[in-house]
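ARCHIVE CARD
CATEGORY: sequence design from structure
SOURCE FIELD: tokenized fold
FIELD CONTENT:
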């Protein structure tokens, strides 16, 4: 089986999830779709022969950056008041509607990966050269060191600014 079909399937899931991120009205639902979108992009990286980049996508973006987003949503109280706050008939249906779409898309990605790993030969799985961790490390700590450090300071400044804007006024 060719790698192009599963790649385009994962890319389609990434596009659908990304559209749900930007068109959603609830911040928590958008974050769930963002996780699925980042996982689908990681699957795309895996299919083009960059398993290290796929792993970084899952660990760094779907893991660390999304935790920061969830923290910001909780800090700024972006959930909205339209969500039911109790568990009952309305609470269960709201929970189901929030998790149904992202769960289906994530399960489709999982089935796709399992099918490809079981069916295909591992030598045919990669289309291009494999990028190893050593090559990425040499580039990140070599010619791109300044860019990596500037990006880390920018993330730190955003976190400090978010805390500053979210804290209540001392005079109130």
């Amino acid at each position: 089986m060719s790698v192009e079909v599963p790649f385009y399937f994962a890319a389609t899931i990434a596009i659908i999830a990304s559209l749900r991120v930007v068109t959603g009205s609830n911040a928590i639902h958008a974050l769930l779709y963002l996780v699925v979108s980042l996982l689908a992009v990681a699957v795309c990286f895996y299919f083009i022969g960059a398993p290290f980049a796929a792993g970084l996508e899952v660990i760094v973006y779907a893991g660390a950056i999304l935790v920061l987003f969830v923290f910001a949503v909780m800090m700024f109280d972006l959930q909205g008041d339209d969500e039911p706050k109790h568990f009952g008939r309305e609470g269960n249906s709201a929970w189901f509607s929030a998790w149904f779409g992202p769960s289906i898309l994530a399960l489709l990605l999982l089935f796709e990966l399992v099918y490809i790993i079981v069916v295909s030969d591992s030598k045919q799985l990669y289309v291009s050269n494999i990028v190893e961790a050593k090559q990425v490390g040499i580039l990140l700590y070599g010619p791109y060191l300044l860019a990596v450090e500037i990006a880390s300071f920018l993330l730190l400044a955003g976190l400090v600014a978010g805390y500053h804007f979210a804290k209540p006024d001392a005079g109130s």
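CARD ANNOTATION: Residues 132-172 form one domain. The chain has a mean pLDDT of 77.
SHELF: design records, drawer C
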